[in-house]
Every structure is written in C-alpha cells, then in structure tokens.
Design brief:
Elements lengths: L2 H15 L1 H22 L6 E17 L2 E8 L6 E11 L2 E9 L1 E2 L4 E2 L9 E8 L2 E9 L1 H8 L10 H9 L7 E2 L3 E2 L1 E9 L6 E8 L15 E9 L2 E10 L9 E11 L4 E11 L1 E2 L13 E15 L2 E11 L8 E2 L13 E11 L4 E12 L18 E12 L1
Length: 400
C-alpha cells in the first residue's frame, strides 16, 4: 500500500472508531442547546425555505449499435424538492432540519426507492464548533463525486459513471441505496473552516433487527478539504466492514484538486477501491482470491465562453484488478451492477443560462469497454461484453 493510501486508510479508520464519540458529542450538544434556551429565556423566530431543482432532457442512447430515444429527468443534476428550516437558539447555537425528495418528472413518481424524502431527511445543531446532524444524510463521498464530475452533466459524466463501473463507494449517485451518496440512520459531524481546512465524518448506526442489512449499511466515511484562493484540494475515504449475509469488506480512497485560472477551471482526481468481486449482483459473499485494487483517473476543464455559456470537457480511465475482470462489483445490486473490465470514457457539454435560475444544456458522451466489460451510461441499455455506450442529449434545468 502506498504512503498516500496508508495515510488515507488511517484517516478513515479513525473516523470509523469515532462513531461512539460522535454519539456522545451529539448528546452533549443537545444538552448545551437546551441550557442555552433556558439562559436566553426567549425563542427566536424560525425560518423555513422551499427550494428545488427541476431537470428534464431528451436523449438518444446507443449501446453496441442498438439505440432508442427517451425523455428522462435528473440529467445535468438530480431533481430535488425540499424544505429547510433553522432557528437561532442563542449563544451562537442554531437548530434546523432538511427534508428533501426527488421527483421523477417524466412519470410523476419519486426516486430514491420511492422514499418521500429520500435525498435528505435530518435534523441538526450547529455553532462555532461546526454541525452535528442525525438522520438520512448526504456523505463526503457524494461531495467528492460531484466536485470532480468535470463535465457537469451527471448522467453522461465519464468520471461519475466509471465510479459506478468500479463499484466505488465514493460516488455522486446511489449504489443499491446502501453506500455512496447517502446514509440512513446516520450521525455526522462537519467542522468549521480553519485556515482553509475543513473536515467531515459520517457513521451509520444500528437500527433494529437485523442490525444492518440492505438499505441500512454499516459504513464509515470521512472527508478533508482545503481551499485557498483558486486552489481546492479534497481527500475522502470510506470503509465498509464485512457483515455476514449483508455486506462485503471494502475500502475506497479518493484525492482530487481543482484550479480556477479565471479563463478556465481545471479538475483532476484519482480513486482507488480495494475489495472483492462477486459472480452475481447483490451477492453477499466475495469470491475467494479476488481481493484486488481498481483504480480510476479522471480530469477535465470547464471553459466560460461568455458570461452566460460554459463548455465542459472531461475524460476518465478505469483500470480494474486482474482478479475482477469478467466478474461483478461487490456491494452493488440491480440495476447498477455490471461486468468489470478496463474502460475509457469522455464527454463534451454545453450549458447556456437563459436566466439566473434557468439553463439549457447539451451533451455527447462515449464509453468504451475492454473485452469483458459491460459498463454504460444508462443501466437499462447495457452493451455486449467489450461494447460501447453513447448518449446524445439536450435538456432544460430550473432552480427555485
């Protein structure tokens, strides 16, 4: 294991061992907040905000020469519809909540497995110490995945989609509602920014019997960020411990940097997954002798052509362990599971602001698998082994 990987391993392992400490911190903060309310003798006025993003596109998809046209949502960014509220508790403390769902505009249903508030549902206490949250929460891995989706178009971004192809827990999306973008039944801590540095950790907790199962994974994640002027550096790690009949041991690391040169923003990121392969989607036992490292390298540039338009270019290369070729990723279920092999993907995007809240977008993306791989941009159109996946789309996005 390299020095960098070893340091990240220690970082993530420390976060895993901090689970009980975080619970104690949360309890202490609740007591402090209660005392704060008594000392001030007043209750400040709460504020509640309605917000969201609506995104729909028309696309032509192709896999190994077969294609079809679709109307789909959550293209440039996931659809969301939510409420957030905060209240000033006095003495520098605040409490608040977030309830956020994911409407599917093309058919009127809900994403995230049909959960009403599947994207986020949490309550938090914040102050000079940072923020502690409880509930279903977004992870440092999601933040990392979005930051380095250089094309800015989630459904066709090379880096984001090859994260799925390698079965990484560090992704902008959701892997079988267990690891990746969100954790249910979790406690999190986000630090304040000190001299450009900030950190965050999250730990999923036990919830009934069986203690941990599909939909309630036991996962520890941690992120460390540094921002100074035009430079941003991000490190993230994830640990999935083995639980018989539920999940397979896996470690994920990521490191990336962005640089805003004014005329363009440059991004580069590297990820490593150390884990097992399986022979069927959602299998709960890793195949003996398949422990190995999958590696992903990606980069891109975002170029503002005018104050209203941006062109994004990105590419990513996946190299899987020899013991993983021709098999499937651990801890990944239907429909995201695919057969692993090396892959290369690239994308070009164009966005145009019609107003402060509304933009048009267009994208062309292409993904090529090596001999055994079936990775693709859309899970409903897998190519033949060694085939290609392409998507050409235009759409409209509105924020409120």
């Amino acid at each position: 294991m390299s020095t960098i990987s070893h340091l990240i391993y220690l970082f993530v392992l420390s976060a895993h061992n901090l689970g009980k400490l975080m619970i104690k911190i949360g309890r202490a903060l609740v007591r402090v907040s209660a005392l704060s309310l008594v000392s001030t003798g007043v209750f400040a006025q709460s504020t509640v905000t309605l917000y969201g993003t609506m995104d729909t596109y028309i696309a032509s998809q192709f896999s190994s020469g077969t294609g079809h046209r679709i109307v789909e949502g959550s293209g440039f960014s996931p659809n969301s519809f939510g409420f957030t509220g905060t209240e000033d508790l006095g003495d520098g403390f605040k409490s608040g909540f977030i309830l956020e769902g994911q409407p599917i505009l093309n058919n009127g249903t809900l994403g995230q497995g049909g959960k009403l508030f599947g994207r986020q549902s949490l309550i938090f206490v914040s102050g000079d110490f940072g923020r502690v949250g409880l509930g279903r929460q977004q992870t440092p891995a999601r933040t990392f995945g979005i930051t380095y989706a250089a094309s800015g178009w989630m459904s066709g971004d090379p880096f984001a989609n090859l994260e799925f192809a390698m079965g990484s827990a560090i992704s902008a999306g959701m892997n079988s509602d267990t690891v990746g973008a969100r954790l249910s039944n979790s406690i999190s801590y986000s630090s304040p920014t000190i001299s450009g540095f900030s950190a965050s950790i999250i730990q999923s907790l036990d919830n009934g019997a069986p203690s941990f199962s599909t939909g309630n994974a036991r996962v520890s994640m941690a992120g460390l960020n540094y921002a100074a002027g035009p430079i941003n550096v991000n490190v993230v790690g994830s640990y999935i411990p083995p639980i018989a009949g539920s999940q397979i041991k896996q470690m994920d690391y990521g490191v990336g940097a962005t640089y805003n040169a004014g005329f363009a923003k440059f991004l580069v990121a590297y990820q490593l997954k150390r884990g097992y392969a399986v022979n069927a989607a959602a299998a709960t036992t890793g195949l003996p002798g398949t422990l190995g490292n999958d590696q992903l390298l990606g980069g891109g540039v975002q170029i503002p052509l005018t104050p209203y338009s941006i062109v994004g270019l990105s590419a990513a290369k996946l190299r899987v362990a020899g013991t993983h070729r021709g098999l499937r990723q651990a801890n990944i279920g239907v429909p995201l599971s695919s057969i692993e092999d090396d892959a290369m993907a690239w994308s070009i995007t164009y966005t145009y602001l019609l107003s402060k809240r509304t933009q048009l977008f267009a994208v062309y993306s292409r993904l090529a698998n090596d001999a055994l791989g079936t990775a693709s941009f859309t899970s409903d159109m897998r190519p033949v082994p060694g085939g290609k996946s392409e998507i050409l789309a235009v759409g409209l996005r509105h924020n409120f």
